[in-house]
Design goal:
The protein has 2 helices and 6 strands; from the N terminus they run αββαββββ. It is of the alpha+beta class and about 160 residues long. It has a single domain, classed as Roll (Nuclear Transport Factor 2, Chain: A). Strands 2-1-6-5-4-3 form a 6-stranded mixed beta sheet, covered by helices on one side. Strand 5 and strand 6 form a beta hairpin. The two termini are about 15 Å apart.
Length: about 160
């Protein structure tokens, strides 16, 4: 079973991913439901910390200091698994208060709810800068782009 995605689905997914940066960087915790499902699982791969549920994400966001990095989500590829799982693989840039930049990847699993597309799980994988001797984290096979996983807009 492969989920068919329309151009509207892809635009809506892009909107959801873009909203993350706006909602989180502006600490609009009342709008987190526009981005995540109630049962979201948000993993920070570098630290191993995992937030479970919208309530934990909200608490985390409320504790973020005002000079925390600002995020830019970009270069998103939407992938559809044979089982119908919809994934978005995105790069992020985070600008720190001193102007320096860090970056990484978001590995998102999305679901379509009555209200629109939402992130059900997110894995944030830090890339650079790395600590001395720190290795890049491996990505699972489901996250590797292939012609079969890219949604077709042709009818």
């Amino acid at each position: 079973m492969t989920t068919k995605l329309s151009a509207a689905d892809l635009a809506e997914i892009g909107q959801t991913l873009a909203l993350f940066s706006h909602v989180c960087d502006n600490q609009q915790d009342d709008a987190l439901g526009l981005v995540f499902t109630d049962d979201v699982v948000f993993e920070f791969a570098r630290s191993g910390r995992t937030l479970r549920g919208l309530g934990e994400v909200r608490e985390f966001l409320r504790a973020v200091p005002p000079d925390a990095p600002n995020h830019q989500t970009q270069d998103t590829a939407v992938l559809v698994g044979e089982d119908g799982t919809v994934r978005a693989l995105s790069r992020y840039l985070a600008i720190l208060v001193d102007g320096s930049v860090t970056n990484g990847d978001y590995e998102d699993v999305l679901v379509r709810l009555d209200e629109g597309w939402r992130i059900r799980s997110r894995r944030s994988v830090h890339r650079y800068p790395r600590e001395a001797g720190e290795q890049a984290l491996a990505r699972g096979a489901a996250w590797l782009p292939s012609l079969e996983r890219l949604p077709s807009l042709l009818a």
